[in-house]
Amino acid sequence: MKRRLGILGIVLAASVWLWFSYQPQATWTSILQQLPATESSAPRSRVPAWTANWSTASEAAVSEQSQSALTWLDATIDQLEQIPPFTAKTRMDIHLFEDTLQVDGRYQQTKVQGMAGQAGEAVRHLYRWDFEFASEPEPIRTSQMFDGRFFYSLHINSGERLLEYVDLYQVPQIVDRQEGKLAPPSAWAGTGGLVKILQHARSCFEFHQCESVAPPTPAGMPFQVLRGQWKVEALKQLLRGQVAPHHLEPEIIWDRLPKQLPHAVEIWIGSDEHLSKFPYRLMFYQYVEDSQTKWKPQLMFATTLYELEFPGELPIENFQVDTTGVQPIELTKDYYDRIRMYLTYPVE
Q: pTM (2 decimals)?
């Protein structure tokens, strides 16, 4: 059980559902049948797909692919920031520690007008991820959410509730200064929603491949697949004191990185008449040694979002936590100290 809880924690740190009832005003058709099985998504015949292509392609071709990927990513982030309140079912496939697990859940996102006199933007985006992991005698439930001020992480296991939180109003200057740096604090906490996850990827990963995938049927959805891997500069900041510099430069020695850290990302962006760009699938890989190609990508976990619903409004209570009978644990100081270290003492 400890191993499975660890897996869930890693997954939540990287990406990703309170069950609530309301009557949706619009419903998206499931796209699960239109996406390939997660096991086959990586182009394993060209492993590692991203590095191999970069090394053989001309500088001009690589630059064009990189710019195209960033254009798609920026446009997707912009659409997510403007999108009306919505929910989506989620399916997470986890391949880690010789286990293969599937976790179902739900994602919620909305935005509200900021409170006068409070730190931060005028418009605040609220997010919530809920996961339910099958276990005996009771399922394990995990929720992570942001209500405009607090980041919450709630774990329910065998009737016991563990609630941790961070108060962003106490660290506004640090949060404002992190723009364009390593990774948004909210992305590290796993509670920042899709926008923060994609912003994190934008800042920390180098995208050198942008591939168009035709729909499986004439009425299906076309996808744009963006592929990238860690920037050396970002790894140097993130892994300070953990990995020797010569394992990062002049070439990254992937098997010297922490075992739980993904090495590469793949983002599947779909387009239809309702949404021109939406990240329906996020996939994270590790490179493993291969006798023929030196490194090949191996899937760690993938998150698929499907059956989007646009109810018009989402109750603000969906993004708040009932603390009755729970002693919340505040992690604001730890959070502040970590962010301050990265911003105040960057690795040169």
A: 0.80
CA distances for 165 relative to 11, 186, 191, angstroms: 18, 12, 10
The residues, any chain, with a CB within 8 Å of residue 67's CB and separated by 6 or more, are none
What residues contact 268, with CB distance under 8 A and at least 6 apart? 35, 41, 213, 223, 224, 225, 279, 280, 281, 282, 283
Interatomic CA distance for residues 119 and 328, integer angstroms = 23
Q: What is d(CA 80, CA 311) in angstroms, rounded to the nearest whole number? A: 16
Consecutive H or E run containing 268: strand 264-270
Beta-carbon contacts of residue 89 (< 8 Å; ≥ 6 apart):
104, 105, 106, 305, 306, 307
| Distance in angstroms (rounded) separating the CA atoms of residues 102 and 39 | 13
- Cα–Cα dist 247/253, whole Å: 5
Per residue in 165-197, pLDDT tens?
988 888 765 555 544 444 444 444 444 689 888
